[in-house]
Amino acid sequence: MEQIQLNEHNKQEYPPMHTCEHIVNRTMVNLFGCGRAVSAHIERKKSKLDFALPHAPSPDDIARIEQTVNEVIAQYLPVTTEFITQEEAAGRFDLKRLPDGASDTVRVVRVGDYDECLCIGLHVANTSEIGTFRIISSDYKDGIFRMRFKLI
């Protein structure tokens, strides 16, 4: 069986939006105690993330998400990568999302000391390259909070 090399990336991505996704994920985990997004669609103009939550966030919660993400972006945090083995990643990261046959080496992306996760995506070098995060709409249905956002 041929191994999939996770460190090679063939998707067209917009690095500021993808890095922002990491910040949004960590913000949701920190504010609501939920897991990272259960579904993501990241594009240049606008993106959406779905989170499993027991109840709909209030308008104040949504404003707090936007404010927190922008505060993190404004810290001008470095975005760095590190390669570690799956064995080293076990217990530190959720390896269930790795595809069958994944290489033994995985890539960790860090956004300063705010977030770290396994990722093969393209990223900015510093959060100062992201811009301003705006939630443009959201809805809640059947335990899923969907957030649509853009960068200005």
Structural description of this entry:
The protein has 152 residues and is of the alpha+beta class. It has 3 helices and 7 strands. 24% of the residues lie in helices and 29% in strands. A 4-stranded antiparallel beta sheet has the order 1-2-7-6. A 3-stranded antiparallel beta sheet has the order 3-4-5. The model is unreliable at 1-10 (pLDDT under 50).
Summing up helix and strand content along with how strands pair, one would put the structural category as alpha+beta
Largest sheet, spatial ordering of strands: 1-2-7-6
Principal-axes geometry comes out as globular
Number of DSSP-assigned strands:
7
Q: Kindly state the mean pLDDT as a whole number? A: 91
Order of helices and strands: HEEHEHEEEE
Give the radius of gyration.
16 Å
Helix content: 10-25%
How far do the termini sit from each other? 44 Å
Largest sheet: 4 strands, antiparallel
Number of helices: 3
The poorly predicted ranges are 1-10
- Tell me the β content: 25-35%
Layout of secondary structure:
Layout: H1 15-32, E1 39-41, E2 47-52, H2 59-73, E3 79-85, H3 86-89, E4 105-111, E5 115-118, E6 133-141, E7 144-151
Helix pairs in contact: 1-2
